[in-house]
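Blinded run. Sample ID left blank on purpose so nobody reads anything into the name before looking at the predicted structure. Input follows.
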Amino acid sequence: MMTLLHVAIWALAIAATFSCGYLLLLTLLSRKVANPSDPPYPLARRLRFDIIVPAHNEQALIARTVTSLLAIDWPQECFHVIVVADNCTDDTATLARAAGANVIERSDPLLRGKGYALARAFEASRASGWADAVVVVDADTDVSTNLLRACAARIANGAHAVQVHYGVRDPLASWRTRLMCIALSAFHRVRSRGRERLRVSCGLRGNGWCVTHALLKQVPYQAFSLTEDIEYGIQLGLAGYRVHYADEAYVNGEMVSDASSARTQRRRWEHGRFNLIRTQAPILLLAALRKRSSTCFDLAIDLLILPLSYIALNVVALLSCAALLLIWQPATLIPLWIGLACATSLLLYVLRGWQLSGMGARGLLDLARAPFFVAWKVVAMMGAEPIEWVRTKRSAP
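Blinded prediction complete.
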């Protein structure tokens, strides 16, 4: 019995130390990153962009998104907004055209998903030979007016892939969206700032990312999983390219506020991530050893770091087992100290995310709901694995 308890404690301690130590490092490195787009590089203003908006039955929000994109502070002759109406059965295409976007209508009952929509748009953009780079924005998103300026500044400075901050458009809709805002500030801002300071890839986040056509030629887009953004970011890292983080620009996507829709979305995200852990983590670690690549090593670590709720459960389990061990061996304090150190590191990470989220005192109070949110996420992961791009039900604008 005691041997099994010791094995369980040290297994939990190693996993918690690995995760919490990495998050603490990035928390300590999360000071604001220098902004190279202010003032912008003069040559950057000449860059031309195709802004790609993959959309599947998004008639409720597509016009608002197109309007937000057309208001970007960039020469109008230097960017196009292209909506990919992918397997739509509603008026997405019609409303996107009326709002001022170019529209590609795609219908393929077998090859379904955001990855296929993006591949179709990237190919059309490449074939036209007009744009220097493409930017991906989800169909339920408001963007900052400096979106292209931030991307162009990095490209002019030698980058080929850029990710801007991905936040929440409707943070005050419910306690769940406020917690999501804090979580995304930690996951997207704290971690991305730290990784930018380490000069490794911040990864792609699915919304608000940019790649040059020169890079697309070197690393053709072939990412069709449920987490196509992470998958392509890994492909870029394996090819020797890092994704630069543009902290001063943002895309704010709408987050679902009802439990049923949020459960479906969460299950899709996390099943996709677990599949990538199984298939890509060994490849990244091997590439890191062979190429001595810090980018591949960091991408592997980032992939192996489980979602925050699982890390929290790991720390709670470690503290519980360490306390149980003290009943039989009162002098055995090392596991307890490790658990307390991990809990402190995790708390600092979450509080830094809260600080950067701008949610204020209300958000801090909402963190008291976090244990219920963790329990909800565990339940949300139960059920069949999603296999295709299904539009998440959202509230009307």
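Unblinding after everyone has recorded impressions. The CA atoms of residues 293 and 308 lie 26 Å apart.
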